[in-house]
Design brief:
This protein is an alpha/beta fold. It contains ten helices and ten strands. A hairpin with a 2-residue loop joins strand 1 and strand 2 (about 55-60). Helix 1 crosses helix 2, helix 1 crosses helix 3 (about 30-45) and helix 1 (about 5-15) packs across helix 4 (about 60-85). It holds the Pfam family LysR_substrate.
Length: about 290
Amino acid sequence: MLDPRKLHLLRELARRGTIAAVAEAVMFTPSAVSQQLSALEREAGVPLLERTGRTVALTPAGHLLVEHAQAVLEQLERASAALAAVRGGPSGPLRIGAFPTAARVLLPPALAALSSAHPALEPMVSEIDPADVSAALRAGELDVALVHEYDFVPPVTDLSMETEPLFSEPMYLTDRPSLAAARDDPWITNKPGTLCHTMAIRACQAAGFEPRVRHHVDDFDTVLAFAAAGQGVALVPRLAALSPPPGVTLTELPLSRRTLAAFRRGYGDHPAVRAAIAAFETALTR
C-alpha cells in the first residue's frame, strides 16, 4: 500500500525540484525527506528517482506516480470535506490567506459575517502574495485564500488547486490620461516577482514603451502617497483607490484585476471553505 504522506512528498519534489526545497516546505530535514522517498520507492517496487551526485530527478515511473498521486490526494481531500459535513456545522481553525488590499478592504466585513454566522469557526488570516498561495495550500498552511489575476499576466496553473471567481475591478492610472502619456514619467511599481509588477511592465510594453521604474513598493496606500508626492505614476486597482490622497487624479483604464477564492482541489465542499466563500460574497454585496 502506497503511503499518501510519501506521495505528497513526491509531488512536492516534482514541483520544487530539490529535496532541500521540499524539506523547507514541509518542515522536515532533507535527510528525513530522502528517507521517506526511498521508502516510497521500496513500496512502489520500481525506481522513482535518479540520483546524480547531489541532484535528484524523477524517473518515468516517478512522473507516472505523480500523476496518480494528484488524483489520490484530491480524493482524500474530498473524503475529508465529506466527513466534515457529516460532523455538522463549520468549527475549529480556518486558515485564510489574502493579498494586502483584500485583507484591508474585504476581509474585515467578511470576518464579521463569518463570526456572526458560524461562531464556532476560528478564522486565522495571513497576508500572502498570490504567487505563493498554491505552495501554501499544498503544504496545508492555508485552507482557503484570496488570489488575483491581471490582464497581461497568464493565470497560475496548478492541478492541485481550484478557484472560484468572486469579482472583477478596473485598474487606474495616477495623474495621467493614458498609458502613452506616462511614457516619460518615472514609475512606481510593486516589487519584481509579483503579479502586480509583471502586469504593470507588460501593460506599458503593450502601450509601446519600457517603463522607467524608480520605486518598488508593494503597499498600494504607500504607492498613492508616493504619487501624491510627485514621485512617479502607478497603476492601482479599485480596491486600493477608494480614497486616494488629495492631489492624485485617477484615470480608469481598460484593464482589470480579478479576485478569486482558491483552495486545494477536492476541498471546495468542506463546510468551512463554503462558509468562508459565502462570507466573502456577503462582504462584497455590502
